[in-house]
Structure formats: C-alpha cells, structure tokens
Amino acid sequence: MLNLFRKKNPSPKEINIDKLIYEIELGEILLIDTRNKSLYEKSHIKTAINIPDLEFESNTDKLPIDKLYPIVFYCKNPECTISINSAKKAIKLGYKNVYIFKEGIDGWNKYHNIKSEIQSQKNALDEKIFKEFYKLNKSNILLVDVSDKEDYNEGHLKNAVSFPFGKLPGNYLKLSREKNIIFYCRTSNKAHEAYLFLIEKKEFDKNKIYYLNTPVKFENGKVKFG
Fold first, then answer.
1. Cα separation of 25 and 2, whole Å?
2. What DSSP line would sit under 179-223, residue for residue?
3. This prediction's pTM
4. At 157, phi and psi to the nearest 5?
5. Which residues pair with residue 32 across a beta bridge?
6. How many CA within 13 A on the CB side of residue 214?
7. Which in 1, 17, 83, 215 has the greatest CB count within 10 A?
8. Where in the chain is the domain with CATH 3.40.250.10?
9. Among 99, 128, 131, 110, which Cα is nearest to 16's?
10. Cβ atoms within 10 A of the Cβ of 38, count?
11. Rounded Cα gap, residues 29 and 64, in angstroms
12. 100: helix, strand or coil
C-alpha cells in the first residue's frame, strides 16, 4: 500500500559567501562545481572539484564515504538551477549535510572584486559598493544606524538596528562578532567615528567592520543617499 505519510527528502540548505569562505579555509567541506568541464576550467572557486550535473551518476565515487560530510554545490548564478539538481541527487543518496551556494561563480567573482574595491577605500563604502555588497551577502550583514533615536524613528534602512552614537562605548560588546558590521548615519561623520572606535577593539575582526561614507537621509519615508 502506498504510504501517504512518507517523509519527503529534505531540501538542500543555502550557505552565504562569508560562511563558505570560512569553511573553505577550514578545509572541512567538499565543494562541487556542477557546470560543464570547459566552464569549470575557465573559472572556478578555489578547492572546488568538477562534477557536471549531466555526469553526476557516473561520478558518485568522487563523493565522500561519510554521508554526514558537508557538501556544497554551485553553478553560475542565482538563476541557475543545475546545482539544485545535483544537490537533490546527493540527498537521495543519503547525504545529510547538503548545501547550495546560490550566488554561484558569478557571485563569487563579483564579491571578491567588491572586497578588493572596499579594501582600497579602507572599508569606506560608497552607495554603489554598499548596495552590491549588501545584495550579495545580506544574511551576514548587520546594519547599524548610529543616529539619534529620534532620527532613526523618522526613517532608517531596512533591517537596520538603532545604536545611538553616544551609547557605543558602554554597549559595543552587544554587536555581533560574526557578521559584517556596517555603520551609517545622516551625515556619515558619526558612522566614520563609530567605525574608528570599533576597529581598535580586540574583540572584533577589523576586516568585518565598515561604514557608509555617504550621508543617508530620509524624505517622506524614502531613503536618499548623498
């Protein structure tokens, strides 16, 4: 008899780029590029092996023996579903920790280009770089509005937390040490000062602290940069 209450195979989980970079450095994941071999050879994420989705079944020997070992699949970009196909095949084989890097090789390359630009600007983000950086890694970014509470209540960026500048010295340890922190304010002056304050603290990774080097104002509920 057909079991109508049979459990469905779990879906692959998503991994953000900062977490992926961290896991690559640890060397405790198998990263798989699911595109055609010729595309893989032109450009791929470091440490990734190539198992084209169309050749998945004939390459299962390249998968870990341990079904709990983390596997991350990727392809070209968020619109590409090839990596999802391969991830589902791995789940059917019994692998329990299967992930998708949704941004793909395009997101990987773009992210590193953006990071290079950010570093050249000493972690000061202009409007364009901020929007691109946030779009690629928003799940791992903490936006911090250091304006006065009244200004924050009048308008603020989506998902931003209120952290008035004057309260920073006694409360900075409440900020996340895992996420990328981006300070902003109405003039960019307080944001810059908050950035300088935090990079001096041992508890935080100075490479994960940024500030918006442009004023962020709100008129009739709409954000206006510059």
1. 46
2. SEEEEE-SSSHHHHHHHHHHHT-TTS-GGGEEEESS-EEEETTEE
3. 0.76
4. -65, 145
5. 49, 73
6. 13
7. 83
8. 13-107, 123-225
9. 99
10. 8
11. 10
12. strand
Level-2 CATH architecture, domain 13-107: 3-Layer(aba) Sandwich (3.40)
* Joined tokens for residue 39: 């595309």
Q: Which CATH class is domain 123-225?
A: alpha beta
**For residues 65 and 113, is the Cβ–Cβ distance under 8 A?**
no
What does the pLDDT profile of the chain (226 residues) look like in tens digits?
344 444 455 789 999 998 999 899 999 999 999 999 999 999 999 999 999 999 999 999 999 999 999 999 999 999 999 999 999 999 999 999 999 999 999 999 999 999 888 888 889 999 999 999 999 888 899 999 999 999 999 899 999 999 999 999 999 999 999 999 999 999 999 999 999 999 998 899 998 999 999 999 988 778 898 8
Structure tokens at 212: 């918006």
Tokens 């983000």 belong to residue: 125
